[in-house]
Amino acid sequence: MKLFICELGRDIYQVSFTLFKLMIPVIIVVKIFQEFGAVEYLGLVLGPIMYSVGLPESMGFVWATTMLTNIYGGMLVFFYTQQGEVLTVAQVTILSILMLLSHALPIEARIAQQAGVRLRVTLLLRVGGGLLLGFIMHHFYSFFSLLQEPVNLMWQPEVPEPGLQAWVVSQVEGLIMIQVVIVILLTALKVLKILGIESLMALFLRPILRLVGIGREATTITIVGVTLGLSFGGGLLIKEARAGHVAKRDIFASMSLLALCHSIIEDTLLVTVLGADLSGVLWARLLFAFVFIGVLTRVLSKCPDSFWRAHLVNKHVEPLEPAVRT
Which keywords are on file for this protein (predicted)? Predict the structure, then answer.
């Protein structure tokens, strides 16, 4: 029992320290950019792009806010922006797809970078992948005349208190909640490992994840990321990768899949209360993520190690091939 507690405490410290060391500076920098109007400028740039996925230009501000902050921030801007627009369920679903694939980029892209994936690759996957899936679903819904009825909002966010003090309090509360989740998550994973349930889960899902190029060592961590979120799965990947337990190719495949599909429970529920349809925000997202990453990893597997090191992975994790766990 003493060994169990010591190992668990060490794991909690390593994952928490790694995540908070990344998140806290980024949160502060993003706040500074917000105060200087970065969201508005990014929204102006994204406005014309919105037309390509069937959305009005004003939705560019919603996506820009989501990119720099999180889905909650994007939902708040959406609530005030959509009052002057009449959006269909299809349009809200497409906007939600963009929000799901491209949110909290300063934090989550940095986590992926620390795990070993180059920043430009993560941004291209998340922004480009969001636009590609949004474009596909826009034409799919339009061609079959699906979800063309006006959206009916199921929820309206509360207006946050203004001021720096309220912002600091909200960020501290968010970090405390993340710490609680990390403790519960790592404890549960440790217990599952002792009981042998982790091995059974990995055995069941291994054939599916193998199709997208994810090896055995990254299976459980990928499941955590897909279900609970990239921050938690990415934090665990950073720890395992730096210990040499997960190969760079597995890290790349896992983080690429998580870039397109993570936190499928909480995030999906969030956007459905805006009126988004599950056909796009869940089923199409899952299908797109697995098919796209499956094709991508197969194409890239033919590339030499020199290409991987130059363009896909960085120096944070050394082995390209799996290491032997001791």
Answer: Membrane, Transmembrane, Transmembrane helix
pLDDT tens, residue by residue, 190-241 = 887 788 776 776 677 778 888 888 988 888 788 888 877 787 777 777 877 7
Can you give the chain as a three-state secondary structure string? CHHHHHHHHHHHHHHHHHHHHHHHHHHHHHHHHHHCCHHHHHHHHHHHHHHHHCCCCCHHHHHHHHHHCCHHHHHHHHHHHHHHCCCEHHHHHHHHHHHHHCCCHHHHHHHHHHHCECHHHHHHHHHHHHHHHHHHHHHHHHHCCCCCCECCCCCCCCCCCCCHHHHHHHHHHHHHHHHHHHHHHHHHHHHHHHHCHHHHHHHHHHHHHHHCCCCHHHHHHHHHHHHHCHHHHHHHHHHHHHCCCCCHHHHHHHHHHHHHCCCCCHHHHHHHCCCCCHHHHHHHHHHHHHHHHHHHHHHHCCCCHHHHHHHHECCCCCCCCCCCCC
Count CB-CB contacts under 10 A for residue 216: 15
Q: How far is CA 276 from CA 55, 59, 61, 103, 127, in A?
A: 14, 15, 18, 16, 19
260-309 pLDDT per residue, tens: 999 887 789 889 888 999 999 999 999 999 999 999 999 999 999 889 99
- Locus of tokens 């200087």: 36
Cβ atoms within 10 A of the Cβ of 58, count? 16
Which are the contacts of 226, defined by CB distance < 8 A and separation ≥ 6?
A: 233, 257, 258, 261, 262, 263, 264
Encoded tokens for 298: 């197969």
